[in-house]
Amino acid sequence: MKRIIVTAIVFFAIGAESQAATRIALKGTIVTPTAPAAAGFVVIEGGAIVCAGATCDTAGATVIDTGLDLYAGFVDAHNHIGWNLFPFTRFSRPTFNNRYNWRFGEKVFKDFQKLKSTLDRKLKCDVTLYTEVMAALGGTTTIVSEDKCHTGGIRNAENPGLGELKMGGTVGDPLQLRGKTRTKWEAILSNPTPPVTRFVIHLAEGRDASSLKEWTKLEAMGPPFVQNRITSIVHGIPLKAEHFRTLAERGWQLIWSPSSNMRLYQMTTDVVAAAAAGVNVALAPDWNLGGSPTLLQEIAYVRRLYADGPVRAHLTPARLLTMATSGAAAAIGLEKHVGTLAAGYRADIVGLRRASTGDALETLMRGDPKSVELVMVDGRAMVAAPTLAALATLPKEKTCEAVDVCGVPRQVCLATSLAALVGRVKAQYPQVAPLADCAERPLR
Fold first, then answer.
1. Triad 40, 44, 46: Cα angle to 5°
2. In the chain, where the domains are located
3. pLDDT in tens, 143-156
4. Residue 5 — very low, low, confident or very high, per pLDDT cuts 50/70/90?
5. Residue 191 — pLDDT band, cuts 50, 70, 90?
C-alpha cells in the first residue's frame, strides 16, 4: 500500500477573488453518458457552468487547455465518511447474515467503534475534511457525509451550498424510526417539498429472511412512509422483482454498494432486476473500512466483480458513469444542480488523464486515482496536477500544497493547511488510512 506524502509548501498565494479569472474555459474532451466523447470547452462563470460543448463562446474567458477528459464531478450518495479514517480491514468472520450480526457481534467493529468515538471527540471537523480530501483525490465532488461540518472541501449533500436545499440525512434502519425521529420524518414526508430533497434509509442490508422483513416493517408504518416520492433505499440486498416494481411505482430510488455487500454478506443487490423495473440505481462505496476508498475505485470494483455474464453486459461503461453522476445526484435529490456537465449546473468537474490505450470510458473503468488530474467544486480547483497548463489562473483557495498520490504529484488546495490537518490527525491516530490508497482490494 502506497501512502501519500504531503509537502507543506504554499505554491500559490493567488486568491480566487482577487486575481484569478472570473470567466474561464476549460479545453478538453467532453465525456458524458449520453453522447460520444468529443473535443470541446466547459465555460465557467460565477461557480456555474454556462456552456459545455464544441461550440461554446469563449470570448472574454481565460482559456485553459487541460488535455484531459472532462466529466461531471462524481456524486457519492452513500458514504460513512467518519469511518474512513480507518484503513481497509477484514472482520473475523468471512460472512454475516445481516448488518446486526457484525454491528453487535463483531469485536473488530466494536473496537473501531470505541476508537471512532474518541477520534470524533478530539478531532471533530478534522475527520470530515481529511476524509473529504480522500474522496476528492478520486474525483468525488459531492458526498453524503452524515455530519454538520462545513469544511470548505467538497460539497456536502446535507449542506450542499445551494441555498436552503439539502438532503434530509440518512436513517440507519427502520428501527430508528421511532420517537422524535419518526415524528420529524412524518412531518417532512407529509409535505415533501424543498428544502429537504430525499428520505434516505438503510433497508434490507443482509442475506437472510430477517433482512427482508425490514421491507415489511417499513410497509407497516403506512402513510406517509409509503406514500411519498422522495425515498431512496440504501442496499436492498434481498429485494426481488416485485419489490423493485413497487419502488418504481412510487418513484423511489436505490443506492447500491456492492464491494461492502460482497465482503460482508457474499451477496449483493440484483441491480439488473431493479433497472428492468424502472428504478434509478446509484453506485456508492459505503465506507473505506470494508468498501472502496473512493467512488472511482468502486466503479473499477464492479468491473472486476462482473468480468463477464449478463450483469457485466448490463453495467456498460456509460451506465456506470450515470450511476456515479446524474443517477447518484437523483438518488439524493440534487439532480438539478450537480452530476451533469451542462449549462445551468454547478461547476463541479473532474478531469482524467486518458490511458495510453483505450478510450475515455475505458480509462474511467480502470478506476485509477493517478488518472485524476483536476477536481473543481463550484468552479474552484481543489485537486490539480502541477503540470496542468495555467494552473495559477484557476480559481482556488489560497493554500495549495504538494501531495504525492501513489507516485504522482498533485496539488490540493484548501482554505486551511493540509499538512497541518494531516499532522493533527496522525497525532491522534498514527495508523490513519492514507489519503490515497491505490492497492487493489479482494473481491470478497
1. 170
2. 5-72+340-428, 75-331
3. 998 667 767 789 98
4. very low
5. confident
What CA–CA distance (Å, rounded) separates 286 from 79?
4
CATH of 5-72+340-428, one of 2.40.50.140, 3.40.50.1820, 3.60.110.10, 2.30.40.10: 2.30.40.10
Alpha carbons 440 and 32: distance in angstroms, whole number: 26
Exposure b/e, 46-82, CB count within 10 A at least 16 = b: ebbbbbbbeebeeeebbebebbbbbbbbbbbbbbbbb
Collapsed DSSP state (helix, strand, coil) of residue 422:
helix
Query: CA 202 to CA 198: how far, in whole Å?
Result: 13
∠ CA(381), CA(383), CA(387), 5° rounding?
95
Q: Does the global pTM surpass 0.90?
A: yes
pLDDT digits (tens, 9 = 90+) for 194-220: 677 899 999 999 999 999 999 999 999
Quick: pLDDT tens for 292-315.
999 999 999 999 999 999 999 999
Burial of 435 (0-12, 13-18, 19+ CB in 10 A): buried
Q: How many whole angstroms from its chain centre is CA 285? A: 7
What pLDDT score does 196 carry? 79
Query: C-alpha dihedral over 255, 80, 415, 400, to 10 degrees?
Result: -80
Question: CA angle 414-416-418, nearest 5°?
Answer: 75
CB atoms within 10 A of CB 391: 20
Query: Is 256 strand, coil or helix?
Result: strand
Q: Select 75-331's CATH number: 3.30.930.10, 2.60.60.30, 3.20.20.140, 3.40.50.300.
A: 3.20.20.140
Return the H-helix or E-strand segment holding 414.
strand 408-414
User: Hey, which residues does 253 pair with through a beta bridge?
Assistant: 232
| Cell of residue 186, nine digits | 412524518
